[in-house]
Design goal:
It contains 6 helices and 2 strands; from the N terminus they run αααβααβα. It has 187 residues and is mainly alpha-helical. The protein has a domain of 124 residues. Strands 1-2 form a two-stranded antiparallel ribbon. α2 packs parallel to α4 and α3 packs across α4. The longest helix is centred in the last third of the chain and has 31 residues. 25% of the residues are buried. Keywords: Membrane, Transmembrane, Transmembrane helix.
């Protein structure tokens, strides 16, 4: 049993933080907050159907995974997240839960309140930039190398534009499939 435990610890060691400090605490807090908020919107204040929720979450999971891979890994290596220059457990939470769910929350409000597209893109860009600023300045979640908050703002602007485009096209596709009876209207 001891050999198995030693093997397991050795296996997960690269995923563990160097030390548990403010950035891990913030990661846990923001994960619980964002996932709880997303859950409430899906269950109580439902605006998107299940197919659209899954679509938005998967689109943003793909977007953040590819984006982080290209921007935070060599040859570019513009920034590090949390304590290491490669993935650790906190990265997994942020990349797989927090980022996609945050964009789902923004899309939820866009649809629910029929916000003007330009206003939504600018507002979403400001919200995402502000969240990054807080995470950098108070919790050391990112270590910029050849990156800065201005570049993040431009990136988030692109994120918001692509999310509006994706949601609009995907929503149209889902409605068309519902009319043809291929997707249940109750989803």
């Amino acid at each position: 049993m001891s050999e198995f435990f030693d093997w397991f610890v050795h296996l997960i060691e690269p995923l563990l933080p160097k030390k548990f400090d403010r950035n891990e605490g913030f990661t846990i807090f923001i994960t619980i907050l964002i996932c709880g908020w997303g859950y409430i919107l899906m269950k109580i204040r439902r605006t998107l159907n299940r197919v659209e929720v899954v679509g938005v979450l998967l689109f943003n999971l793909l977007y953040t995974t590819v984006g982080d891979y290209f921007l935070a890994m060599p040859p570019y290596d513009y920034y590090d997240t949390v304590d290491r220059n490669s993935g650790e457990f906190s990265d997994i939470l942020l990349q797989n839960l927090v980022y996609p769910t945050t964009l789902f929350i923004l899309i939820h409000y866009y649809v629910r309140y029929t916000i003007n597209k330009v206003g939504f893109i600018i507002g979403g860009t400001l919200i995402l930039t502000m969240l990054e600023w807080v995470s950098v300045h108070y919790f050391n979640l990112f270590t910029y190398k050849q990156w800065n908050l201005g570049l993040s703002s431009l990136f988030y602007f692109g994120v918001m534009v692509l999310n509006i485009l994706f949601y609009t096209l995907f929503h149209r596709y889902v409605r068309k499939q519902q009319k043809r009876g291929r997707i249940s209207s109750s989803t």
